[in-house]
């Protein structure tokens, strides 16, 4: 029996899109014309792809029993029995080792960042995911480590405003994910993710709104700051702000009125307005900076 598809499924390749955060340093560090930095950023991205797949495999092995009671997660390869718990743990170890090896070829700092990501996520799986608010901050920290790997890890000085924007964005998406899960699972929420018993939709809605406001403010300040204009040679990055506003408000709409928000990557693929805002923002940035 060919089980390669099951192991590919275990790695969740569709989630690798999240590791594009590593590449934002090239864009906002104005380094996309520097071949050595491009190569370093690509390898760092590959390292995070391998490391994130290691985390997914480890998490699936640890949560197999709970996943079998989830309406969607029961179809995951470990939960349905296509891959054993031991095999999933072995795959996680191999992927983690490969990710660290790739990161080491970039720099010692990048390797340290990837190692921190792995340790943080093991701690999350083993207990931190049960602590309200801390669980979402751990998720956000994973994205911040990606940003740092693609900036400081390859020798690009990160913008403090951009780091703040990235933190608030990932917190918004994290609280939004919890809100979507609470809405979807209703009375069964705690049985599938214990920490959901501690959350209320009212708290999560307020947390999402606070973070969303912070994202817009931080991004707006970043686009008009003199340092940004000096780095990129243009004062017109503020023209990208309408796309950010469109995407933010559309996400909030999906979260509250369309039962969405659970998986941002999936939301972008399913919702044409979110897809338009993402592509419009990227296209405008490339036009202004290129």
Summarize the structure.
The chain is mainly alpha-helical. The chain is built from 14 helices and no strands.
| Overall pLDDT | 88
* Shape assignment: globular
Q: What's the Cα radius of gyration?
A: 19 Å
How many structural domains does the protein architecture include?
2
Q: Can you tell me the CATH superfamily of the largest domain? A: UbiA prenyltransferase
Subunit organisation of the chains: single chain
Count up the helices.
14
CATH class of the largest domain: Mainly Alpha
Approximate helicity band: over 70%
Report the strand count.
Answer: 0
Beta-strand content: under 5%
Poorly predicted ranges (pLDDT <50, ≥5 residues)? none
Q: Could you say which structural class the secondary elements and strand pairing correspond to?
A: mainly alpha
Head-to-tail CA distance between termini: 50 Å
Order of helices and strands: HHHHHHHHHHHHHH
CATH architecture classification name of the largest domain: Orthogonal Bundle
CATH topology of the largest domain: Tetracycline Repressor, domain 2
Which sheet architecture does the biggest sheet show?
none
């Amino acid at each position: 029996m060919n089980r390669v598809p099951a192991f590919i499924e275990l790695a969740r390749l569709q989630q690798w899109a999240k590791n594009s955060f590593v590449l934002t340093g090239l864009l906002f560090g104005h380094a996309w014309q520097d071949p050595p930095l491009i190569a370093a950023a690509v390898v760092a991205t590959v390292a995070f792809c391998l490391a994130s797949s290691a985390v997914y495999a480890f998490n699936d092995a640890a949560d197999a029993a709970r996943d079998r009671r989830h309406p969607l997660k029961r179809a995951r390869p470990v939960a349905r029995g296509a891959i054993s718990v031991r095999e999933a743990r072995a795959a996680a170890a191999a992927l983690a080792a490969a990710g660290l090896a790739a990161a080491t070829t970039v720099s010692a700092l990048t390797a340290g960042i990837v190692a921190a990501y792995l340790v943080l996520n093991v701690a999350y799986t083993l207990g931190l995911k049960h602590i309200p608010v801390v669980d979402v901050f751990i998720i956000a920290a994973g994205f911040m480590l990606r940003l740092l790997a693609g900036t400081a890890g390859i020798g690009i000085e990160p913008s403090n405003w951009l780091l703040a924007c990235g933190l608030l964005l990932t917190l918004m998406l994290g609280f939004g994910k919890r809100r979507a899960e609470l809405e979807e699972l209703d009375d069964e929420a705690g049985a599938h993710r214990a920490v959901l018993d501690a959350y209320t939709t009212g708290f999560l809605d307020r947390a999402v709104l606070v973070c969303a406001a912070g994202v817009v403010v931080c991004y707006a300040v970043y686009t008009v700051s003199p340092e940004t204009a000096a780095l990129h040679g243009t004062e017109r990055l503020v023209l990208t702000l309408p796309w950010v506003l469109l995407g933010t408000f559309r996400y909030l709409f999906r979260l509250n009125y369309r039962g969405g928000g659970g998986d941002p990557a999936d939301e972008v693929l399913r919702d044409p307005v979110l897809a338009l805002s993402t592509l419009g923002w990227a296209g405008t940035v490339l036009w202004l900076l290129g």
